[in-house]
């Protein structure tokens, strides 16, 4: 699978994540058949245009922490606000990070086929 095909599979899979739910970069990577490529999932989402229909905000780290976009950026804050607008509770940790609960809002279908069936 080349990079463009991988990115398109990532976008198609992220579109399946229901509103009000979150999953991890690693879970998306596993669903598209590339379980060791969670960082590539992050890279694919990072280059999306602002007007994209891909709900990038629903993808977080494997611990539920919203990843920083680098020093001096507001990406984590924007992602937290977008999730809260969907009804996802976002807490602020003692370290000042934003975090979501997979127990409450997690979306972890076992297979891509299961995810596609759930979306119908």
UniProtKB/TrEMBL annotation:
<dbReference type="GO" id="GO:0032259">
    <property type="term" value="P:methylation"/>
</dbReference>
<dbReference type="InterPro" id="IPR052520">
    <property type="entry name" value="ATL_DNA_repair"/>
</dbReference>
<dbReference type="GO" id="GO:0006281">
    <property type="term" value="P:DNA repair"/>
</dbReference>
<feature type="domain" description="Methylated-DNA-[protein]-cysteine S-methyltransferase DNA binding">
    <location>
        <begin position="5"/>
        <end position="88"/>
    </location>
</feature>
<keyword id="KW-0227">DNA damage</keyword>
<dbReference type="InterPro" id="IPR036388">
    <property type="entry name" value="WH-like_DNA-bd_sf"/>
</dbReference>
<dbReference type="InterPro" id="IPR014048">
    <property type="entry name" value="MethylDNA_cys_MeTrfase_DNA-bd"/>
</dbReference>
<dbReference type="Pfam" id="PF01035">
    <property type="entry name" value="DNA_binding_1"/>
</dbReference>
<protein>
    <submittedName>
        <fullName>Related to methylated-dna--protein-cysteine methyltransferase</fullName>
    </submittedName>
</protein>
<keyword id="KW-0489">Methyltransferase</keyword>
<dbReference type="InterPro" id="IPR036217">
    <property type="entry name" value="MethylDNA_cys_MeTrfase_DNAb"/>
</dbReference>
<dbReference type="GO" id="GO:0008168">
    <property type="term" value="F:methyltransferase activity"/>
</dbReference>
<keyword id="KW-0808">Transferase</keyword>
């Amino acid at each position: 699978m080349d990079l463009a095909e991988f990115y398109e599979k990532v976008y198609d899979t992220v579109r399946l994540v229901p509103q009000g739910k979150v999953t991890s970069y690693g879970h998306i990577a596993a669903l598209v058949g590339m379980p060791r490529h969670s960082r590539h999932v992050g890279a694919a989402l990072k280059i999306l245009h602002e007007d994209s229909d891909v709900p990038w905000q629903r993808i977080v780290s494997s611990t539920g922490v919203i990843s920083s976009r680098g020093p001096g950026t507001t990406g984590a804050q924007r992602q937290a606000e977008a999730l809260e607008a969907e009804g996802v509770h976002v807490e602020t940790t003692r370290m000042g990070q934003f975090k979501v609960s997979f127990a409450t809002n997690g979306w972890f279908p076992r297979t891509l086929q299961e995810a596609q069936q759930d979306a119908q």
